[in-house]
Amino acid sequence: NINNEVITRLDKWSKKILAPMWDKNYDLFRHYGWLDEESIKSLKELKSFPFPFNIFAPFVVLMSVWLSYAKTFMYNVSSDIRRKLNTEYNPEDAAPSSLIPAAFIAPEKTTEIRQIIRNQGFSEEQIDLMFLSMYRMYDENVVRNLYLRGVLSEEGLYERMRELGYTDTRIKEMVQGWPVIPNVADLFHLVAKEAFEPDMIEHYGYADEFPEDQVKWLKMQGLSREWALKFWYAHWDTPSIQHGFEMLHRQDP
Hints:
69% of the residues lie in helices and 0% in strands. It is an all-alpha fold and 253 residues long. The chain has four domains: 2-79; 96-134, no CATH class; 140-175, no CATH class; 184-247, no CATH class. The longest helix is centred in the N-terminal third of the chain and has 31 residues, at 2-32. Keywords: Membrane, Transmembrane, Transmembrane helix.
């Protein structure tokens, strides 16, 4: 009973004396812009906690806010001291991601760079993996060009694309999009030039003199022989009506 009475009195005392004190601190935090309204509203609910949490919880929160302010304040006002000490003692090491590219540019610095990274607590195995991860890979466009030009075999193609993180299924899908298809303007031009009409092609000899030896170079750019033929059919200039009349008048009687 005595214990219950003591607890009851302490609870009443905390609500009468401490609660208003907490509220004053919250108002101060609001005034200085340290906490927003939503945060203050949530913190005020700590007063409704059962004893003794209604005493300790607000106290811990308030001390944390004040300490955070003091820590941040001291960090900023001590910037000159921090700069001076940093200049004298150079406590910071460059990140491995910044150092490793320097080893590629200046290989003679590799031993020094590896030592700096070791000083940061990395093992030799981890450093090797870091170097491996920093090697530049071909991008998709370079892989495409090398494959179309015969520099990469199909096996080499898959190997390079896997290095970029593609699965075999996605690689197979991507390769199907590499051959060149004429754009809309070119397609309409080919239609207008009768490149899709076999009878007209044969009648006017549009396929004559097709430069077959150029096909290999066109394929290296992704253009198939079939599309190369279509462009060849369309490259001829059809005689105009005026030209037709001139040829008619100049024929032998």
